[in-house]
Design brief:
This protein is α+β, with helices and mostly antiparallel strands and 155 residues long. The protein is 37% helix and 46% strand. The N and C termini lie far apart (52 Å).
């Protein structure tokens, strides 16, 4: 199993950052590897969706369950398919200057010899992608929040 840990501070209130982070349309904007997603259904268990990601020239589709464990503080996404399985946790903490977002992920390679042999390369690639994703999330949120704040001032 491979683990990832990333953290970034975003200059916007926790409610805004959290809402942005739980909106599926924003996921592809922040994650370059996510090329498609489909919400299958929303249940008491969470949002069931299917996503397609492209990593290292390979495309894989997985089914995930996305849950809000604690409003404005924590989300969990669990996935399991033939290529890999894992869990992604996002935690949000309010600060004086905005919001700290912490991402923790664990990935397990699929059962094939190819998947297990590819895992060290995939781990390095995904670690970079998750870091890029948080940086992109920060840039998008801060730009969009600044426009919203400017519109409020002008109104």
């Amino acid at each position: 199993m491979t683990s990832f840990n990333h953290e970034i501070e975003i200059g916007a209130p926790i409610e805004y950052v959290f809402e942005w982070g739980i909106t599926p349309e924003n996921w592809a904007r922040a994650m370059p590897a996510l090329i498609d997603y489909e919400v299958i259904e929303e249940t008491a268990e969470g949002i069931h969706f299917r996503n397609t990601i492209k990593m290292l020239g390979r495309t894989t589709t997985s089914n995930e369950i996305f849950t809000v464990d604690e409003e404005n503080h924590r989300t969990v996404s669990v996935f399991d398919d033939e290529d890999m399985s894992g869990e992604m946790i996002y935690e949000y903490t309010e600060t004086e200057d905005g919001t700290i977002v912490r991402m923790h992920g664990e990935l397990e390679a699929g059962t094939s010899l190819f998947d297990r042999a590819l895992m060290p390369v995939l781990s390095r690639y995904m670690n970079r992608q998750f870091g890029i994703s948080l940086t992109t999330m920060k840039e998008l949120i801060e730009a969009e929040y600044a426009i919203l704040q400017q519109a409020v001032v002008e109104a």
